[in-house]
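Board notes (copied after class):
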Amino acid sequence: MSRGEGKLKLMVVDDEPDNLDLLYRTFRREFKVYKADSAFSAMKVLEDEGEMALIISDQRMPEMNGTEFLGKTLEKYPNTVRILLTGYTDVEDLVEAINSGKVFKYITKPWNPEELKTVVQQASDTYKIVSQRTNALTRALRRESILNEVMSAIRESLDYSSMLSTIIQTVGQTFDATEGKLWPVKGDRLMPESFSYQNPEITQNNFPFTPEQFLEVVKSRQTQLEESSDRRICKLIIPLIYQQELLAVLALYQQDRSKFWSSEDIELIESVLEQGSLALSQAKLYQRTRELAEQMRNELEVARQIQSNLLPQSWPEFEKLRIQACCYPAREVGGDFFEVYTHSQGDIWLAVGDVSGKGVPAALFMASAMSVMRRELSQENPPDPYEIMHNLNTGLCDDLISNNCFITMVLARYTPETGLLAYANAGHVYPLVWSQTTLLSAENQDSNQVKPNFLKARGIPLGILPKWKGKAGTIDLNSGDVFLLTSDGITEATVVQEATDSGEQTRVMLQQEGLWQLLKQHKSEIDLNNLLAYIRANNQVQEDDQTILSLEVL
């Protein structure tokens, strides 16, 4: 045959019967020889028998000469080696044939038998080398094409279960399997759920594998190829392994002997599954990551609810006071907090704090700070805000310093009987005090003349030094006065500034002056929810926790 084992095929073409017989007798032992007495007969032989390893053709033939005939075979059978028999007078035809690449050698008539045998042997060796290289290239291209096709199909599925199904379906269809199954493996044990493939042309379902065969592959982690005793079924079991982890076991069988897998096919299937194992490992990791992310989201939702419950949910209605407070963490949980605490002696304690950082670490320190603060406030005679700041710093300092965190906060005590507000500020945003009565009375006048009082008595944040340093402050609040505390998540938010002369709008940081301008715009009634909603509407992405608290003396 022209490929594989056995004799190579050789065709001799000559319109003289004696020459045909001589050529046939010369090469019939080494080759499978086909005879044709014309170019048209030779074309028919090629159509029936397929590619020839060698063609020896006479040049001078009726209807179609040798050069024309060999030229017609070039495109369809490029690997065939062509030899031209020519006379001394056919020089022009010979030059044309050689220049166009249609012939390997030419032999002049009458030929020397030994010379002809030598040329044919060279041609035979040349055909074998060209065929080997062509086959190798064809296999490489087929391998690359199948790998790309299969991996493209596999990688379209990120879901782990979907990818398992895609692997068995794609591999089974690509390699003409009768039926196949894929079992995921966990801890060297086959999982109960399997994924199947069945050739749509096959109606019967008789999976010819035993549990012992799979256990052997799981144990040995080696590919198993087996033909049934009657040689009617070819069975294949391949482990899918990535970085020494057994991910799955794939089993295929083929009951059409003409399609049984060759060693080359097995290597290709193993290469495909090697890449499939990588994709499967990534999908498994992706699924695990999604599960962990979902678990984390659920846990953070619980933590958010717990943290929300730590903040005051309500406070008493006061006859001559109005207190409002809002807190929106940037993530599920955050480091901002506020406190509204009514002491049994009548004092009202207010606080707003901000733990550095965001997320769970900040939320844990926030809970610790509120716990220590409430313990201080629950005493029968709580110390003043300045002393409580000292105590908070003492109780939290070691943990804050060791975790490179700090807390800014304002703590204030308001005494309704005297109207006195005492406060301490640990590195927090300045509290604001202004007269809402004066602001409202300026409605028909220039409200820009009304200025807020920034309470600038301030110390260092908690957790910076072992001993807190700061200043105490006091202020009298009269009827109509408002005391406002915010976190930097509000003052550092950005808002759209009015268009400039160029007509372009710009975004600027709100800061305390900008907050005061907003408060003047909402001067008819202080509503912190509306105020914060306006600020949040200008920021599609909340960068920091936002907390605001107000005490208004009616």
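Comment from the instructor: The first strand starts at residue 8 and ends at 13. Confidence is low (pLDDT under 50) at residues 1-5.
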